[in-house]
Design brief:
This protein has 191 residues and is α/β, with parallel strands linked by helices. It is 38% helix and 20% strand. The strands form two sheets. A five-stranded parallel β-sheet has the order 2-1-3-6-7, sandwiched between helices. Helix 1 links the parallel strand 1 and strand 2. Helix 1 runs parallel beside helix 6. It is globular and about 55 Å long.
């Protein structure tokens, strides 16, 4: 049994991402402990106005966000592609919560910081309005590179799979049903 954290990165109150996150939660809860975060429900200042030059106290929702990240052994991020990458509120939560001493630690004399969130795995479920193959191979797969390399790998979290669902804008009930089945199947494969 694993501790699984599912993050719905779409800040809207109702969305396909929220429904897909709930589908994953339902399927994975049969065999694992699970918690969910809806980014839209978090209350915090997105702006890291002083960078890391000044320590700013975290709002209670970000303290809870960090607590759930620490608790998790497997993290699932369900995100739409907005302007090529993640919604600003998810990026803001990461900027504010993935701090030195929490996600990584600079080590004197070394060019690469120590990864503090090692031992965890992740899974990305990405929705987009363009065809996934076009997004990945023509547009450069920015969301994957951003999340996997710049955030997850940097913190020590190993991404084990990525699912792309789209185009959403012209999807049918049949294609959406297939996407929900794909997400449930992925949750059922988690060991």
């Amino acid at each position: 049994m694993k501790n699984v954290l599912v993050i719905n990165a779409n800040p809207k109150r109702t969305s396909l991402c929220k429904s897909l996150a709930e589908e994953y939660v339902t399927a994975v809860a049969v065999r694992h402990e699970v918690k969910q975060i809806d980014i839209g429900d978090l209350n915090f200042d997105l702006n890291l106005s002083d960078g890391y030059d000044r320590v700013v106290a975290l709002e209670p929702d970000l303290v809870e966000f960090q607590s759930k990240i620490k608790w998790a052994e497997h993290i699932v991020i369900v995100s739409p592609v907005w302007w090529g990458t993640v919604p600003a509120k998810l990026k803001g939560a990461i900027d504010r919560a993935f701090l030195p001493g929490f996600a990584f630690q600079y080590v004197e004399g070394q060019s690469m910081p120590k990864k503090l969130l090692g031992g965890r795995t992740s899974e990305l479920i990405i929705t987009l309005d363009s065809p996934p193959i076009w997004y990945k191979y023509v547009k450069g797969n920015v969301i994957y590179k951003h999340l996997k390399h710049s955030i997850l790998d940097f913190s020590g979290i190993k991404n084990i799979s990525s699912i792309y669902l789209g185009p959403v804008i012209h999807s049918t009930s049949t294609s959406k049903r297939a996407w929900f089945n794909k997400v449930a199947k992925s949750a059922n494969k988690l060991k």
